[in-house]
Amino acid sequence: MRSITKSLLAVTALCGSLAATAGAAQTIRVAHVDPDDWTGSKKGAAAQIFKNIVEGESDMTVEIFPAGALGNEDELVAQAQDNLTQVVLVSGAMSKICPAASVLDIPYTFSSATVAWDVLDGEFGDALSEHCREQTGLRTLAYGETGFRNFTNNTRPITKPEDMAGLKFRVQPIPLYVEMVKGLGGEPTPIAWTELPNALSTGVVDGQENPVGVIYNNGLHKLQKYMTLDGHVYAADFILISDEFYDMLEPAQQEVVAKAARVAGTMGRAIQQWNTAEGVGKVQAEGMEVFSPTSEEIAAFAEKAQPAVVEYLRGELGDDAEWIDRLQAAVTDATQ
């Protein structure tokens, strides 16, 4: 089925390329893995407002493929690089094709969403975007938001790093997350997302970590008793466009696409913030015990987690390790 879909996309992409050469109206395919419902899905909201602006302010047409209709994030990125799907909204997949982007996952880097926005929408975000464009052929039109990730478990409240000891936490199969949990004294267990509910239900792991909205919308709060709002990783969304396709557009079309993406990123952030604020109240109302640490208490977590992750990343990134220092400098500037 995937090969058939790819073949059909290739044909339509070729037609789109020929139309671009002739200066005709464009069709932009936009894909993501989240639900289409804009009220509960940050990518869903971002994609829909992108479509509304582009179609309302130009002669271009936007087709949206939500909920993984064209594949997972890795597949969507590959399609964008081949100009089969022109715009994709992804998060974790970006660091796989542009390793420098992984510095954004250094735990406890951002003290708040507004600090993250200042950094990503400023000089650092622009520089990272250009670096990744040169490496991948994908242009970052704007940054959205997946949200701060938080720990939950079914054993005891976690108010300090020492409370992590002996607890098994499901983590994404990404080395950075493994190093983070190890640094905090927990036992990381990489498990695929689809297997997480069963792992929690059967006690294979004691806990997990995800944004509040993800925890509530997927019913994980019903399988966990305690949540700690430590916000250890701020996860960004990347709104990417095929650079090949972007260069085919007329300047006026580029302007509309760039504007629509910036608004889309902001819309995604707003929906994510709404889901987080609403989600905390909902999980508490349904019996979950939520602990909100002070800045001093979060600093204790950072002291344990950051060194292990930074050391790992410096070894992995090689020459790109400079992005760690550039990010830290940008955060310092944004918080002064």
UniProtKB/TrEMBL annotation:
Predominant place of localization: periplasm
Superkingdom of the source species: Bacteria
Cross-referenced Gene3D superfamilies: Bacterial extracellular solute-binding protein, family 7
Subcellular location: Periplasm
Swiss-Prot/TrEMBL keywords: Periplasm, Receptor, Signal, Transport
GO biological process, one term: transmembrane transport
Gene Ontology cellular component terms for the protein in this record: outer membrane-bounded periplasmic space
Leader sequence segment: 1-24
Family annotation (PANTHER family): C4-DICARBOXYLATE-BINDING PROTEIN DCTB, PTHR33376
NCBIfam families reported in the protein's UniProt record: dctP, TRAP_S1
Entry similarity comment: Belongs to the bacterial solute-binding protein 7 family.
Name of the protein described by the UniProt record: Tripartite ATP-independent transporter solute receptor, DctP family
